[in-house]
Amino acid sequence: xxxxxxxxxxxxxxxxxxxxxxSWVAVQELERLGLGEDVxxxxxxxxxxxxxxxxxxxxxxREQQPQLVVHVGVSGLATTVTLEQCGHNKGYKRLxxxxxxxxxxxxxxxxxxxxxxxLDMDAVCxxxxxxxxxxxxxVSKDAGRYLCDYTYYSSLYLGQGHSAFVxxxxxxxxxxxxxxxxxxxxxxQEMLQLLEQDHTVEEHLHNEHCNHSH
Length: 214
Prior knowledge:
Blueprint: E1 5-12, H1 22-33, E2 39-46, H2 50-64, E3 68-74, E4 81-84, E5 86-88, E6 114-116, H3 121-131, E7 137-140, H4 147-158, E8 163-168, H5 177-212
Parallel strand pairs: 1-2, 1-3, 3-8, 4-7
Antiparallel strand pairs: 4-8, 5-6
Helix pairs in contact: 1-5, 2-4, 3-5
């Protein structure tokens, strides 16, 4: 029997004007849909607190050992399901739900300024938009220098790029929770397919290399 793929998907708790955080609502909707028989899906809600993220993410990667972690956050500016290509290390001045921000205003002392996902978000975006699920998807390179960006950077660092971040609009602007759940489902399926392809190519190259050594 094929080994199940482990995927962790997170949403955030309410903060600021977001009394209901559509990211967590969307993730719960995704959990109801599931990602199919061969995917073991684990979901969790992340506090909008820098220190909680620092404590939670390492244990999440260590205990779950996922092939992919997808973080979902709400953006009041978003009107599409937005795929973030990279996370940033510096510029964290906004106070969190505990009125705290890192003294260094950065995520990781001496870490690279920007870490990119191993996933090609343009490719994921194109595929989902071509599938015509009635939910628009776009790509962004700026996750906003708040807890979304902070979480994404930390996760990319811990998971060697095997992480993704998806920004969703607030509920009803324009999508319902069901729409957002379907959107996440489509996006994550494409991400897993891309990872699978890359893995197959790597194995193929590795085998070619091995065959030559005899």
